[in-house]
Amino acid sequence: MIEFDNITLNELKDEYKQLLKKYKRIGGRLEKIIKMSDKEQRRRLEENESLDEINKYHILEQEKAHKKQKGMIVNDFEGDENFKIDIIYKASDILSGDSYSIYKTGDGGILFYMLDAMGHGILPSLTSFSVASAVKQHVKDVKSLKELSNKILPNLQATLTDAEQLSCAFIWIHKSFESLEYFSSGMYPQLVKDNTTIHRLKSNNIPLMSFITDIKVTSIKLNGFEKIFLYTDGLTEESEELINPSNIETIFDDNKLNEVLKVINNQDLEDDVTFIRFSKK
After folding, report:
1. Do 70 and 96 touch, CB atoms closer than 8 A?
2. Paired residues of 181 in beta bridges
3. Residue 168 burial (CB count, 10 A)
4. For 145, phi and psi rounded to 5 degrees?
């Protein structure tokens, strides 16, 4: 019998056989693991593909909803040569809690409104849609902002959930620009340039909630209306280095407006941004 440093050939064969058995066992386990891994990967891929399809569906449905939401926006002065109108309406996501409209009222005046429903996504977009629908239903049949507020109050009470708030500003400028009525709920001051005076229309109501029973309306005499500026708080939050509530009147300057527009249009937003600058030519 051949010996190699006290190890016989038979012993080497036995060692080899043992190693071969171990290899086969390990190989078998590895094969099972690989098969299981392939199966798990296929399952995960199928799940991911399914999730991608679900996500695409929800995005498509939200885009349809946003299109319907935008369809509620009214601008009765689009193309009117007597006025210059600058509007930005940009959502931080697909759906927006912001909304606005500019109506010609039944008595020959103008109604502006700006809505900023609390939160992001479906719930605030439904709230703004519902309020916009209520305004659209009644605005042509009433003759004052107080009358309109009484008409939409039941809708607000029914639409707003217990934990929900709606910030908004409604401004009704009467025929011939002789006076205005407004109510503002939880908004930064909206601006009216009246000859040499800039009226800062401060909030005269708390943010609207489901338990409200009345909306306070304030009247102001006008002596030479020139411009009005309405905005949601997303404007100052997204461009605070350029503009903030303390210097908001600088937005009446075209250069400042262009600076702000450049910032808003070239960044991802954390909040919805909406504003209207409406000027007599």
Report:
1. no
2. 172, 219
3. 25
4. -70, -35
